[in-house]
Write a structure and sequence with these properties.
Helix content: 55-70%
Order of helices and strands: HHHHHHEEHHHHHH
Number of strands: 2
Shape: elongated
Distance between the termini: 37 Å
Strand order of the largest sheet: 1-2
CATH topology of the largest domain: Four Helix Bundle (Hemerythrin (Met), subunit A)
CATH class of the largest domain: Mainly Alpha
Length: 283
């Protein structure tokens, strides 16, 4: 079960992010740097014959030259003499740069394929990007968005609504927490929480704790011009969670388990509908 403290329940502190679209948080940044250290930098070997850390005599001289001249566009005669100094400069850049420059650097390093490291780097980078809920993955050597900023914004906006919709917020926060739990994600119950958020909103809009989603949709249709096709579409989607083989019942033999994609779609869809419904009622 996902637990939240008071600040998180009230929407004053974040619980989880549906996706990191235009930033890289500390946990993701450290994890990406650790991949570089473990999968690439650990292969550094000095020239044992001279017994000192001189980069130009090491097996990393070619890598250092390519990164210094090709990525940083700096004159190579200014390049640090030792690998330790060079790696320290890389670390400073990595942890102080804007998020997009970090991804650009990762792409460049992968493109070099130094010591045949690209395949393993991509695999480990993608594991971290998925685990930390980044909106990007390596695809064919390029870091590619797998979710949009607009989708993430729908969820953040719905969660951030005023205290008048605190019940909606709690359901959405719980759904997001179950979806993004790194240790034990619960996609089925995440979907339940997403649809429960919509039901909570329905009760609030109608002013009746026994109100149904159908009643709320009818109110939106008659008083606020909700298109009948949108009403039908959401009722059909809602029905998917309620029928005999749906989310709200135990898995039947042979039923396909819920996936991350299912839970993510339902969270975004329900969040978008909640924002739409609130905006329509308040206009």
């Amino acid at each position: 079960m996902v637990t939240m403290d008071f600040s998180q329940r009230m929407g004053l502190a974040p619980v989880h992010k549906v996706a990191q679209t235009e930033d890289i948080d500390a946990e993701l940044l450290v994890s990406l740097w650790n991949v570089l250290c473990l999968q690439l930098f650990s292969q550094y070997r000095p020239n044992n014959h001279i017994g000192v850390d001189v980069l130009s005599y090491s097996n990393f001289n070619g890598l250092a030259l390519k990164v210094y001249s090709g990525f940083f566009k700096k004159p190579i005669d200014y390049m640090p003499n030792s690998w330790e100094s060079y790696r320290r400069d890389l670390r400073d850049f990595f942890f102080k740069s804007p998020w997009h420059r970090v991804y650009s650097f990762m792409e460049f390093v992968v493109s070099i394929n130094y010591c045949n490291s690209s395949g393993q780097l991509v695999r480990e980078f993608n594991k971290v990007l998925e685990r930390e809920n980044s909106a990007y993955r390596f695809v064919s050597g390029c870091i590619t968005p797998i979710t949009s900023f607009e989708e993430a914004e729908e969820v953040e906006s719905a969660i951030g609504r005023s205290d008048r919709y605190a019940g909606v917020r709690i359901h959405l926060q719980t759904a997001l927490g179950m979806l993004t739990d790194r240790e034990n994600p619960d996609y089925r119950n995440s979907i339940k929480e997403s649809i429960s958020a919509v039901e909570s909103l329905a009760k609030k809009l109608i002013g009746d704790d026994k109100a149904t989603l159908g009643q709320a949709l009818k109110t939106l249709e008659t008083k606020h011009g909700l298109h009948s096709s949108l009403k039908s579409a959401f009722m059909t989607l809602y029905g998917y969670t309620s029928d005999a083989g749906g989310i709200r019942h135990g898995l039947l033999d042979g039923d396909k388990p819920c996936t991350k994609a299912d839970a993510r779609f339902m969270l975004i869809c329900c969040s978008a509908f909640i924002n739409f419904a609130i905006d329509s009622m308040e206009d």
